[in-house]
Amino acid sequence: MSGTEDERDSGGADGGTDEPGTADRPAGAAADAAADAVGEAPGGAADPAAGDLSAEDRAVLAFAARGRPSSGEKERAVREQLGMSPVRYYQYLNALLDDPRAARHAPVTVNRLRRLRQAARDRTH
């Protein structure tokens, strides 16, 4: 592992915006980390206070809210932090953007991503 605990907590040695303390977690641990943050058992049981979104839903939305400097870095981070392929991540995120519970949970992120999605659709039609 390169970097110290302090570097991971401040976003890493490269200045990234990774979630604090997750650099040494195994792939797929982001959902468990989100579950820990809300006091939920790992495995995705819905939390009524979060509008019935699963821990994985919340982890994907939190990941989408953070920017990445390059697509290659983002793809690597998707695999390491969410434990899914980039294609699956985008399919999952696209479905979340149409879910009103996601909009209630993270309205700024969801609305921003909806605008980007619509702009991309408008360019191709």
UniProtKB/TrEMBL annotation:
It comes from the Bacteria. InterPro entries: DUF3263 (IPR021678). Residues 23-52 have a biased composition (Low complexity). It holds the Pfam family DUF3263. Residues 1-52 are annotated as: Disordered. This is DUF3263 domain-containing protein. It comes from Streptomyces qinglanensis. The lineage of its organism: Bacteria, Bacillati, Actinomycetota, Actinomycetes, Kitasatosporales.
